[in-house]
Amino acid sequence: MKTKLTTFSLIISGLLFMSQNAFAADKPYAIAIHGGAGTISKANLTPEQRQAYKDKLKEAVDKGSKILEEGGDSLVAIQAAINILENSPLFNAGLGAVYTYDGGHELDAAIMDGKTMNAGAIAGVRHIAHPIDLALAVMNKSEHVMLSGAGAEEFALAQGFTLVPNSHFDTDARYQQLLDAREKLQAAAKSEQVASVKMQDLDYKFGTVGAVALDKKGNLAAGTSTGGMTAKRFGRIGDSPVIGAGTYAENGVCAVSATGHGEFFIRYLVAGDICAKVKYQQKSIIQAADEVINQRLITAGGSGGVIAVDQRGNIATPFNTEGMYRATRSNGEPAQVLIWQDE
Amino acid sequence: MKTKLTTFSLIISGLLFMSQNAFAADKPYAIAIHGGAGTISKANLTPEQRQAYKDKLKEAVDKGSKILEEGGDSLVAIQAAINILENSPLFNAGLGAVYTYDGGHELDAAIMDGKTMNAGAIAGVRHIAHPIDLALAVMNKSEHVMLSGAGAEEFALAQGFTLVPNSHFDTDARYQQLLDAREKLQAAAKSEQVASVKMQDLDYKFGTVGAVALDKKGNLAAGTSTGGMTAKRFGRIGDSPVIGAGTYAENGVCAVSATGHGEFFIRYLVAGDICAKVKYQQKSIIQAADEVINQRLITAGGSGGVIAVDQRGNIATPFNTEGMYRATRSNGEPAQVLIWQDE
């Protein structure tokens, strides 16, 4: 009898254990973040700089992961992670935004909710410390998707945002990059039209930041925030605030945030194309993202990378540049923080 | 002997005829244009107005078709057709652009070359008579894809464009629409936040114009030009200049130009999604466009339509509104000019 009881209780325990595991397996969660892709030379990054990047990426991914672990929304998790990167001068977003040709800063951002397919984006704002917050406000508080320039800031004021001076985004390191870029542009201008200068020949430090997440409720979200291209002119809008290019999320399919040479990401509809391959060709997120970044974009001459997460919490982080600052974390496992392919 | 010769020459003639036909069949060409979709009530359109719309649409589609027939490029054909619509006060593009909330005009446009996957787009310009021409210049003469606001006009000046005063776009009919829209917005504002007013509740005359074409060389192109939404605020950017939303072209797949409630077209990546269904699901352009416009968008609550052409010259013109001003012409056949489903 005792044996029978023990066997019985063992079976019950086993069933309980299995059902808990099944419960847990039904509720995966995952987050991936990036801090830009580009020609990140191992030789040019000191051990201290390397550590500083990795520490900040870890702080951001841990923050987002904790929110997800506690049952929070994917939108909340990605906003929190992006805010941390916007507050760091290491990345080309918020505080560390690059300079425009005219010596100012113009920031872009977008956020998308895979559950509702709602989205908010802003382009060319000059006085918003956390552009991702304004993108979220556009999504939640306006019936528009994309606002630009001074108009977007008028909306921000109406929503109670505090504007900061454009000099808030000034940093010595970025200013030096502007001077270098201007010099190269001016040298190139002597031989050809300024308008046709190949900006991609310049050594850009693409440092756009972004995050994608799957929460325990099964909701996907994606967000991207950037200062754009160093020495950009003419009110240039890159891929970050363009839904389907630099930012996209659709429940049941995937969430993507991109970084790189934005013009190529717009033309090739990078975020949307990755999700279309998952949705219509039943490709894995790994294969879909790899085909777009490492085949299609390379053929086209477009450099950069993406972070992507699918409905089951699988994460892809392909890039066709030397490096991409990134971190990932799934289901409470330790964070993976990487800059190059292998470290 | 004579019979044999005759038989022989008949066979030769037959082969020649077949090869000519095969030649012609290998070189189809087609163009479709639209002048906006919306609540176009048959009762509210006088016979004279109806004729005026149809005449202008026919003029535009004939112009584009002639260029294609003579072996011209699809890009040239769509630009010429769109210029005619931009010059007409009947449509919400160029001369007939609607008013912003503040009583001005801000125009958007985009163009995409399916052969090179190159694209040009402008958002929020105030002094460009033919926005599609500036979008083309952005594509051909800058290394950016999307320029906005005053910066885009600085680029235009550098390219030799002549700026026109914003009052160039003033028309009495559009001003009356602004007054009506403002009144409704202000009435709504008394009961709720201005920012959350449902703009879609207003009776917009969406009048965005666009064109898609396949030329004899097999190259697809798409273009869209618009004054946006009546009473738009905050530097709102709609779907027209967003590559993959309102405008998209890819050789071998399809070319799409959209018109309607732009926010939905951005969120659902309408032009890109139609092409993805053709490319990855091997759906016909008719089925792909119908699924997006008449199934997905209707479920989401997004109103509007598209014109689309595929690599063989098949044309789809679905819309989920009462009417859509449109005209199509393929392979020298007579133009089809329609406003409602059947007439």
UniProtKB/TrEMBL annotation, chains A, B:
Q: Would you say which domain of life the source belongs to?
A: Bacteria
* Gene3D superfamilies, sorted: (Glycosyl)asparaginase
Coiled coil location: none
What span is annotated as the signal peptide, if there is one? 1-24
Instruction: Please give the Pfam families that the UniProt record associates with this protein.
Output: Asparaginase_2 (PF01112)
Alphabetical keyword list: Signal
What is the protein named?
A: Isoaspartyl peptidase/L-asparaginase
Q: Which organism is it from?
A: Shewanella morhuae
